[in-house]
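Suppose you are handed a protein chain with no further information: no name, no annotation, nothing but its sequence. What can you learn? This example shows the usual starting point.
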Amino acid sequence: MKPISKKTREIDREATVWFNKLKDELTFPFEAKALFDDNNNIPYGTRMMVTQVDNYIDMYGMLIEVKVGGKKYFVALCEVELIYKKSNNYKLVNEYLE
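A reasonable first move is to predict its three-dimensional structure. Written in structure tokens, the prediction is:
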């Protein structure tokens, strides 16, 4: 078994800090729109309610739980745009994305 690299540990620490910060400081629920196109469930531009920060997966980044038409989905935070650009949520998510 290969030991975990120092860089991997640093990424994991940073992801944990961001996960906790977003979970604690975002005000839920809030509206966002899809910046992706999943023809079967969520077409590009679909408005959705973000209900929580769910998890961090290295391949996708921060995952959020969203509701669209009464159904629950999990999408990457980087694949949505917040509707209200003057909100504290918008500022915090953009800080995370940078």
